[in-house]
């Protein structure tokens, strides 16, 4: 067996080989699992890094042009001149990409000695596996949960606000979703089983299309929990499902509760040609606060099918500074993770007469909404003020 | 064109002049292994950003890095100090050098003293010794001008707490909380400093900044939590990590120090200031601060 100093575990912190071993660890099948990836279903990672300006701000801009400029023609007599059209401006919003960090891992010399003793008994794999599952996996989960939390908040509330963790809590940006895209149902609150949910969906779709001029496919995004508490007990939904089953010679017995499958199979047959219903499932398992949802439980979302925007990302100042100007007494290596959204920094630092080993995960990225003119948020729980 | 930037169709002739790139070497030069550029957990949101554009913070400016009792949800406060050269009935003349903190309309200034006696560190909070503020005033207008040969900001002020016309001296920014009472200073406990110069490019109204700081401090479980409005997204939020190491700084190259701040000097060298070292035990810090405050500890 090679010496502990040459073990893969120990070399993870090596300034030359560390990055390679960490990459191997991240890519090895079955080691690090992608959990909490809600944000990747709804957003695409920006292939370009958003550059930081001289002031260190990574400013992104999202622009959209209103495609709703058509008018009926003017009737004219021959030789009459035309009337000049007003030019539409471009709707835009900007924001700055914030920094996030996962709780870090520290190992003192005494703890490492313990690892060395275990290495003699159990070998490299045990140490690597423990490190991968307890530390790297945890940090990757933290980052994924954070991005998913922000993504769900952005989709369901139309704003990016960070109010979790032990660090800074602050609003980040708010895309300029037009006020008319913030709606409420007209046929009763959805929490009430007698609400005409299907009529509402059809009406909301029509309003959104009329307001925005969007002609493409729309989807209605609703959480599983909202679906369970609002759709399944709803009388109009029940009635439609029963009808569909009856005309297909598979009637439902009286008193049976609806299931997700029954409803999702019956709704596409509705003559309203309702938008496709997409069930979203987003949660973060925070060890302090328990299960946390970024999705606002009062709101459902209607928006164009497909990705809602980019996850804007930028380079991390710590990495840039430490790569160039790190103290020779310290060792650093950096491994990009999460498709470039963040970086794992392994460092060996002096602590008194001994060394100390650190692992940190930094992320500088934020999901941004790039279809904001076509994005409707419907508060289905609260009555109009 | 948009609300902030426009274009002009003709030619706009103008020149600007000035200098750039200069800086003041505030840190005393020692060879040896230093541990000064050490940063605390996460950095924080700046609680007292300036209310107008162009406020500069200089290397060596003192700060307070504040967290809740669990060392979480940090905020950063800047000690803004002003050298008031002259006071008369309606005006305060504040020294304007390239290294002065710029006053803004609406800033509250005052002179703060620590309540000495046995209560200094035996109060409710070790980190917030009791203070008294007197000579408070609020700035109503700011004009760049000269007082004799000295460059000054001539500030119209409304005096609040018995400022005499002769009470020139070092003033610091205070929190406009109880207008007629004892306004607390922004910075009560000095534990950090700026490691380089920087400038605030945008001003933030005091009440807006306060709201955002409240937002950071209140947990998600707190039902009284401030509701956000569109304004809060457009307001600048400055997130900054000060250094907490024990750098030695030339006092004469720092921003002017109010008398009470000198109690926080952990340096045993004359003319140098040191923020109590982050390695220092509370007892050592207490002895150091206590002995300079002239009290028995």
Strand and helix layout:
The complex is a heterodimer of chains A (385) and B (297).
Chain A: H1 8-11, H2 18-27, H3 38-42, E1 43-45, E2 59-65, E3 90-96, E4 99-101, E5 105-107, H4 109-122, H5 124-157, E6 160-162, E7 170-173, E8 182-183, H6 197-212, E9 218-223, H7 224-231, H8 235-247, H9 260-266, E10 276-280, E11 284-286, E12 290-292, E13 299-304, E14 309-313, H10 317-325, E15 331-337, E16 342-351, E17 354-367, E18 376-379
Parallel strand pairs in A: 1-14, 8-18, 9-10
Antiparallel strand pairs in A: 2-3, 4-17, 5-17, 6-7, 9-13, 11-12, 13-18, 14-17, 15-16, 16-17
Helix pairs in contact in A: 4-5
Chain B: E1 44-46, E2 55-57, E3 62-66, E4 75-78, E5 81-87, E6 91-95, E7 108-114, E8 131-147, E9 150-159, E10 169-173, E11 192-193, E12 198-200, H1 206-217, H2 230-234, E13 239-240, E14 248-250, E15 272-274, H3 282-293
């Amino acid at each position: 067996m090679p010496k502990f100093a040459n073990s893969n575990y120990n070399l993870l912190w090596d300034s030359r080989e560390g990055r390679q071993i960490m990459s191997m660890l991240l890519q090895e099948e079955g080691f690090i699992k992608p959990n909490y990836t809600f944000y990747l279903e709804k957003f695409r990672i920006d292939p370009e890094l958003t550059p930081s300006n001289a002031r260190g701000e990574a400013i992104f801009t999202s622009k959209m042009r209103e495609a709703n400029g058509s008018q009926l023609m003017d009737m004219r007599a021959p030789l009459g001149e035309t009337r000049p059209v007003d030019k539409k401006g471009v709707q835009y919003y900007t924001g700055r990409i914030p920094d996030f960090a996962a709780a870090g891992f520290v190992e003192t010399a005494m703890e490492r000695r313990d690892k060395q003793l275990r290495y003699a008994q159990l070998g490299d794999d045990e140490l690597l596996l423990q490190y991968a599952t307890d530390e790297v996996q945890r940090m990757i989960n933290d980052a994924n949960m954070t991005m998913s939390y922000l993504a769900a908040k952005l989709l369901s509330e139309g704003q990016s606000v960070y109010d979790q963790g032990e660090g800074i809590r602050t609003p980040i940006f708010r895309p300029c979703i037009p006020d008319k895209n913030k709606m409420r149902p007209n046929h009763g609150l959805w929490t009430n089983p007698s609400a005409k949910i299907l009529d509402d969906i059809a009406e909301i779709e029509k309003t959104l299309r009329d307001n925005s001029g969007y002609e493409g496919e729309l989807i209605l995004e609703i959480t599983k929990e909202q679906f369970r508490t609002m759709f399944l007990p709803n009388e109009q939904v029940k009635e439609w499902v029963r009808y569909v089953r009856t005309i297909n010679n598979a009637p439902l017995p009286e008193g049976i509760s609806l299931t997700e499958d029954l409803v999702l199979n019956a709704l596409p047959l509705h003559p309203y040609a309702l938008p496709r219903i997409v069930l979203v499932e987003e949660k973060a398992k925070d060890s302090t606060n328990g299960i946390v949802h970024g999705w606002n439980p009062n709101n459902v979302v209607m928006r164009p099918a497909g990705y809602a925007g980019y996850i804007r990302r930028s380079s991390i100042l710590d990495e840039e500074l430490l790569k160039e100007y790190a103290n020779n007494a310290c060792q650093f290596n950096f491994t990009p993770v999460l498709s470039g959204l963040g970086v794992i920094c392994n460092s060996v630092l002096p602590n008194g007469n001994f060394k100390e080993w650190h692992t940190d995960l930094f992320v500088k990225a934020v999901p941004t909404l790039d279809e904001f003119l076509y994005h409707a948020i419907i508060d289905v729980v609260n009555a109009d003020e | 064109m948009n609300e902030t930037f426009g274009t002009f169709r003709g030619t706009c002739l103008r020149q600007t002049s000035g200098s750039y790139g200069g800086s003041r070497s505030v840190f005393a030069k020692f060879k040896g292994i230093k541990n000064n550029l050490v940063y605390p957990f996460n950095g924080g949101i700046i609680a007292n950003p300036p209310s107008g554009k162009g406020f500069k913070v200089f290397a060596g400016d003192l700060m307070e890095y504040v967290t809740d009792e669990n060392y979480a949800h940090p905020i950063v406060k800047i000690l803004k100090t002003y050298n008031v050269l002259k006071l008369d009935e309606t005006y305060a003349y504040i020294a304007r050098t390239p290294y002065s903190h710029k006053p803004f309309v609406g800033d509250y200034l005052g002179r703060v003293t620590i309540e000495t006696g046995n209560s200094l560190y035996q109060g409710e909070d070790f980190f917030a010794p009791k203070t008294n503020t007197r000579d408070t005033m609020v700035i109503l207008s700011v004009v760049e001008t000269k007082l004799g040969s000295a460059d000054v900001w001539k500030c119209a002020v409304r005096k609040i707490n018995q400022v005499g016309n002769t009470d020139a001296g070092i003033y610091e920014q205070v929190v406009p909380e109880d207008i007629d009472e004892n306004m607390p200073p922004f910075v009560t406990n000095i534990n950090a400093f700026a490691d380089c110069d920087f400038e605030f490019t945008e001003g933030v109204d005091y009440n807006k900044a306060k709201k955002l700081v409240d937002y950071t401090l209140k947990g998600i479980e707190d039902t009284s939590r401030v509701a956000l409005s569109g304004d809060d997204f457009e307001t600048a939020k400055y997130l900054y990590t000060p250094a907490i190491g024990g750098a030695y700084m030339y006092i004469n190259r720092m921003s002017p120090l109010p008398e009470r701040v000198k109690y926080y000097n952990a340096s045993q060298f004359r003319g140098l200031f040191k923020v109590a070292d982050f390695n220092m035990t509370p007892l050592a810090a207490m002895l150091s601060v206590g002995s300079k405050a002239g009290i028995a500890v």
